[in-house]
Specification:
Number of domains: 2
Structural class: mainly alpha
CATH architecture of the largest domain: Orthogonal Bundle
Protein name: ABC transporter permease
Number of helices: 15
CATH superfamily of the largest domain: MetI-like
Subcellular location: Cell membrane
Family: Belongs to the binding-protein-dependent transport system permease family.
Membrane topology: Multi-pass membrane protein
Order of helices and strands: HHEEHHHHHHHHHHHHH
Oligomer: single chain
InterPro entries: MetI-like (IPR000515), MetI-like_sf (IPR035906), UgpAE/MalFG_permease (IPR050809)
Length: about 290
């Protein structure tokens, strides 16, 4: 038996070693990612309050969900988050191009631009809640009169999205800065020798080398927009009148406040399917462009 192990092909031993190294990560991924997804999917077909026995209801949770106006409000707000938060990648790219210079003091400027990203969502929510306060907020000093942004159903979602853009832009900026530092300077120099400059150089020479950074910034921004929760919980609590709620907060609201775990699992499944469709589409585009 030992001789067979010693004389095993080198490729087979490498595969075995690689699997042994990957095994802990695969186990963790299966326990903390795959199992919760399958468990939520199964739970969505039951009525369960977390204490009593589960009762099978089939597609009743989904039927109720698709007839609930709050669900469509949350879905509309998620689309609004998705559209407006997509401003973060191009703004982050603009900041990255500006900060990618060898100028004295640029490291300090980079740290100031990046500082909003290291703050927690709760802190950002409190800062912007004070900023929007109609009695003493900074917005009142800028505009000249108090505007109840978080108390108005027409403004609350936009105010929270603006707060979310504050840390998301520097996150995209860091991704693009990383991509810019890893670019091939010879390709840029060749483009300049061919007469490319300004927007032409950016579009035809720089951006093609930043495809991976663009993919990561867009994908992570979309995921952040679809799973937005902390700012809404801190700033508005989904109100007023559920006008600023999103699917993630709606799921939390139904499970934690009303103990409807089967119903909240159905919301989680719908949110997971929406995210899966987009991520699959983005991955196929990336693989096609690379091939």
């Amino acid at each position: 038996m030992s001789r067979n192990k010693v004389h095993a092909p080198l490729a087979q031993r490498r595969k075995r070693t690689a699997l042994l190294f990957l095994l802990p990560a695969m186990v963790i991924f299966a326990v903390y990612v795959i199992y919760p997804i399958l468990s939520s999917f199964c739970l969505s077909f039951y009525n369960w309050d977390g204490v009593t026995d589960k009762s099978w209801v089939g597609f009743a949770n989904y039927n109720e969900l698709f007839h609930n106006p709050v669900f469509f409000t949350a879905l509309k707000n998620n689309v609004l988050w998705l559209v407006l938060l997509m401003l973060a990648p191009p703004i982050g790219l603009a900041f990255a191009l500006y900060l990618n210079q060898s100028v004295w003091g640029m490291r300090l400027v980079k740290s100031l631009f990046f500082s909003p990203f290291v703050l927690s969502g709760v802190v950002i929510g409190l800062i912007f809640s004070w900023f929007y306060d109609p009695a003493f907020g900074l917005l009142k000093l800028i505009v000249g009169h108090g505007i109840p942004v978080l108390g108005d159903e027409h403004y609350a979602t936009f105010g929270i999205i603006f707060a979310a853009l504050w840390p998301q832009v520097p996150f995209c900026m860091i991704l693009y800065l990383t991509g810019l530092t890893g670019m091939n300077p010879e390709i840029i120099e060749a483009g300049r020798m061919e007469g490319a400059k300004g927007w032409t150089l950016l579009w035809h020479v720089v951006l093609p080398q930043l495809k991976s950074a663009t993919f990561m910034s867009i994908t992570l921004t979309v995921i952040g927009a679809l799973r937005s929760f902390d700012l809404i919980a801190v700033m508005s609590g989904g109100g007023p009148y559920d006008s600023s709620t999103v699917l993630a907060y709606f799921m939390y609201d139904q499970s934690i406040k009303y103990f409807r775990f089967g119903y909240s699992a159905a919301i989680a499944v719908v949110l997971f399917l929406i995210m899966s469709v987009f991520i699959t589409y983005q991955l196929r585009r990336l693989l096609r462009s690379e091939s």
